[in-house]
Amino acid sequence: MGVLVVSLNPAIDAEWRVAEARWEEKNLIESERRWAGGKGINVARWLRHLGSPPRLLLPLGGERGRELTRGLKEQGLAASAIPVKESSRINVVVTTAEGRQIRFNQPGPRLSGVEWRAILRETKRLLPKISCIIFSGSLPRGLPANAYAAMIRLAHRAGVKAVLDCDGPALRAGVKARPLLVKPNLYELGQWAGRELKSETEIVRTAGRMASATGGWVLVSRGHEGAVLVPAEGHTVWFARPPRLQPVSTVGAGDALLAAAVTQIEEGADPREWLRWGVATGAAATQSTGGRLPKRALVRELAAGVTLRMGRK
Predict the structure, then answer these.
(1) Angle at alpha carbon of residue 38, lines to 116 and 281, rounded to 5°
(2) Which residues contact 87 (CB under 8 A, 6 or more apart)?
(3) CA separation, residue 164 to residues 7, 186, 223, 238 (Å)
(4) Which of 50, 106, 261, 284 has the smallest number of Cβ neighbours within 10 A?
(5) What pLDDT, on the 0 to 100 scale, is given for residue 248?
(6) In the prediction, which pLDDT does 134 show?
(7) Fold of domain 3-10+37-90+110-312
(8) pLDDT at 1
């Protein structure tokens, strides 16, 4: 048994490096890198790096879809690709010499009803072969907001653990389908709540409401402050903070955190270890440029330095 990562809106990630970003002026691109990306592929890349080789399920179309296919093969990522008529997207990260970043994401292809049904058929075919399914990233145009929710219900019927990492209407609908684990960041959790969350108390209470709605766990990523893990049952919550680091890039750090947490879930570890290794891996991800992975020894080193503390709902 293994892990299936569903990435319904994969992308070519491109990083443009510039000396500085100047509005209403020409900006010289000093270098460009491109790699197979988007949240789901980032999660799969980290799962493989951590020793849990996954399978990806993703729609691919056009020249960018072919570029993505080549990139996945180069990285040794197994994939079930659903061909779609419209082209896959490209996301651009602009990085200045100071290390500041701004990101531009395309909405992606518009999928037809026929293409969506093909994705569902392939999901049903793969479910008996896996123990966990991760739904990661935005939905492409043409799919209903409850697309992930429908797939989570398929997973429940097959006895497969479901993990959700998305935002907006897809998150709201997906929570109602009761996945085992939801991983919002602070912005996404506030989006779900309908307000900005300004205090730790608000974060814990809101995550607690989400956990109660799912009957499972909510893992809230908090950037350099680490993460908090909130269960539906009981009153104990856990906070984790990584050692202080100067980030090289924050692209994909949340995806690394999620991959490490799922790896621990699959190994039957205590939930505190989901949190510890998730935070350590997310921190390690910030020490490499986008699309590149640090040595696993760095993850182990950082895990030893993660600070855990207990809190109450």
Answers:
(1) 130
(2) 61, 62, 63, 64, 65, 109
(3) 11, 15, 18, 20
(4) 106
(5) 87
(6) 98
(7) UDP-N-acetylmuramoyl-L-alanine:D-glutamate ligase (3.40.1190)
(8) 81
H, E, C per residue of the chain: CCEEEECCCCEEEEEEEECCCCCCCCCCCCEEEEEEECHHHHHHHHHHHCCCCCEEEEEECHHHHHHHHHHHHHCCCEEEEEECCCCCEEEEEEEECCCCEEEEECCCCECCHHHHHHHHHHHHHHHHHCCEEEEECCCCECCCCCHHHHHHHHHHHHCCEEEEECCHHHHHHHHHCCCCEECCEHHHHHHHHCCCCCCHHHHHHHHHHHHHHHCCEEEEECHHHCEEEEECCCCEEEEEECCCCCCCCCCCHHHHHHHHHHHHHHCCCCHHHHHHHHHHHHHHHCCCCCCCCCCHHHHHHHHHHCEEEEEEC
In angstroms, the Cα distances linking 202 to 31, 230, 240, 266 are 42, 13, 17, 30
Q: Tell me what pLDDT residue 251 has.
A: 83
The catalytic residue positions are 255
Listed as ranges, residues in the chain with pLDDT below 50 are none
| pLDDT tens digits along 217-273 | 999 999 999 999 999 998 899 999 999 999 888 888 999 999 999 999 999 999 999
What pLDDT is recorded for position 143? 97
The whole-angstrom separation of Cα 13 and Cα 8 is 15
How far is 255 from 39, CA to CA, in rounded Å?
6
pLDDT of residue 289: 83
Look up residue 43 and give its two tokens: 């999660």
pLDDT at position 234 is 87
d(CA 240, CA 224): 10
Q: Which two tokens stand for residue 292?
A: 């590149």
pLDDT at 171: 98
